[in-house]
Amino acid sequence: MADERAAKFQNLKTDIHRKLVEQLDMTKLAQNVTEEIREQVRLIVVALCEESNTLLNFSERQRLAREILDETFGLGPLEPLLADPLISDILINGPKQVYIEKGGRLTLTGVKFKDNAHLLHVIDKIVSPLGRRCDEVCPMVDARLKDGSRVNAIIPPLAIDGPSMSIRRFGKDRITWEDYVRFRSCAPEMVEFLRACVHAGLNILIAGGTGSGKTTLLNNLSSFIPDDERIVTIEDAAELQLRQPHVVRLETRPANIEGKGRITIRDLLINALRMRPDRIVVGECRGGETLDMLQAMNTGHEGSMTTIHANTTRDAVQRVETMVMMAGFELSARAIRQQFASAINLIVQAARLTGGPRKIIAITEVQGMEGDVVTMQDIFKFEQDGVNGKGEAYGRMVATGVRPSFLERVQAAGATVNPDWFVGRDLIVESAEQEPT
Ligand SMILES: Nc1ncnc2c1ncn2[C@@H]1O[C@H](COP(=O)(O)OP(=O)(O)O)[C@@H](O)[C@H]1O
Ligand SMILES: [Mg+2]
């Protein structure tokens, strides 16, 4: 019975939408929507919905009107999700499966598209204002919503089970250092330590998995760069929000429809070196640019920062090695490690733990090389003690008792260093019973 009612609802919706399209020139509408037009269309929709009086009750008619308006002016079934600022990701696997991430948890929603064509239409609505297309010729695209959210769409034949779209929300409420402390993502001592390291111009590599909080960390670390330095940022999609006055922001460009004009992170990085930057901040290193970044760090662009995809600090070294080799540079593994060891001073490891909490799980000094091995020492780390009744990881944030060897350099640069930060102890102790943040 419920199914029958739902089907009836859907049919009516299609019906009314068709009538609406007959009455209006939709293409014109999409280009220039004023409040006035919106209101007029709303009245037409409400009138059409009222005609269905006998079939639907009042709240169903209201829902019908809202859904048709979302379809007409917005991104259809996605609108209610986009209106919720607490949703950080919207992941669409074909028309009938829409997941969201909210508060670190991934859940399936009841949101559905009518069919593949409907979902494709919504994808088209997102990418066409940017002069892009998503079709058989170009079955994968990156785009951005008006609010800055990042969108990737990939469609058949590449996506086998129907069009798939991933929306990474651009949080309106950016996470600040106060939030890190409040969420127990790190201890206040760690924030102060990182502030001193950035201020002093150490080269920092942020490592972490997808969605672990790398970009958020990069953004927050960048906030510690002194105001009088010239910063060049390089990203695939501009996410960083630096408040310093002297920032040049660069963004890559995908190939156009003819497959030409692609500008990569590496191209921008090489160009950035000619722009006399004090510091270079690269959103993420994924390929050949990794070696250029290490070289830039080794040749006077101290205080530069980037992120890479790696689950442990050890893995980070391995990843850099692999990326440099895959890019076709004729360098031995040892030579790459040497570049790494001399370029990177500090690795900050981000992680999304079981059940959702995101934490800085290690702040690690890169000390140098011993034989063929990059030597590293954890200064702070997270020790997981278990998983609580809500399925969330909990544990202790620990100062390991190791004093970084670069402390003198940091102090000489005028940054405040407190020796107490490094006294070995638990900085945060979470318990299984503790309320989640
Ligand atoms: N410490 C944190 N606590 C809670 N949420 C966080 C934290 N760091 C990041 N997030 C959220 O996690 C999501 C992924 O973060 P992001 O920095 O984009 O990850 P990555 O760059 O590693 O893919 C975002 O919604 C962000 O707001
Ligand atoms: Mg990121």
Give a description of the structure:
There is one protein chain. By secondary structure, the chain is of the alpha/beta class. The protein folds into three domains: 1-73, no CATH class; 78-172, Beta-Lactamase, CATH 3.30.450.370; 177-429, Rossmann fold. The chain is built from 14 helices and 16 strands. It has helices at residues 2-23, 26-31, 35-51, 58-73, 79-82, 116-127, 177-182, 188-199, 214-222, 265-272, 289-298, 313-326, 333-343, 407-412, and strands at 87-93, 98-102, 105-108, 140-144, 150-154, 164-168, 204-208, 231-235, 247-251, 279-282, 305-309, 346-352, 358-370, 373-387, 393-399, 425-429. It has a ten-stranded mixed beta sheet with strand order 9-8-10-11-7-12-13-14-15-16, with helices on both faces. Strands 3-2-1-6-5-4 form a six-stranded antiparallel beta sheet, covered by helices on one side. Helix 1 (2-23) packs across helix 3 (35-51) and helix 3 (35-51) crosses helix 4 (58-73). Residues 214-215 line the site of magnesium ion.
